């Protein structure tokens, strides 16, 4: 499900079962990420699927990438793998107005 930044943040802040998932590359992640984000690179193909399959399917995942395209695809894959609650951040980190962490 695609959410505007405002809805994504509001829902995330109210969700005690939330996990933030960054699906960018490790290099992109190291340029700065949303606090507490878990990084699983969607470009890793089957390795991405293996890592997603290891996640707790009862959690709610707030997914983002650079612009929103890869994270939309990631949400679709997650749904196919049995994770019902995956929320895509429209506009990705490019449009992010909140804080970011520099590793």
What does this structure look like?
This protein is an alpha/beta fold and 103 residues long. The chain has a single domain (2-95), classed as Oxidized Rhodanese, domain 1, CATH 3.40.250.10. It contains four helices and five strands; from the N terminus they run E-H-E-H-E-H-E-H-E. The chain has helices at 5-14, 26-30, 46-53, 69-80; strands spanning 2-3, 18-22, 38-39, 60-64, 86-89. The chain has a five-stranded parallel β-sheet with strand order 1-5-4-2-3. Strand 2, helix 2 (26-30) and strand 3 form a beta-alpha-beta unit.
Topology:
Elements: E1 2-3, H1 5-14, E2 18-22, H2 26-30, E3 38-39, H3 46-53, E4 60-64, H4 69-80, E5 86-89
Give descriptors for this structure.
103 residues, 17% strand, Oxidized Rhodanese, domain 1, alpha/beta
Summarize the structure.
The chain has a single domain (2-95), classed as Rhodanese-like domain (Oxidized Rhodanese, domain 1), CATH 3.40.250.10.
Order of helices and strands: EHEHEHEHE
What is the CATH topology classification name? Oxidized Rhodanese, domain 1
Basic shape: globular
Radius of gyration: 12 Å
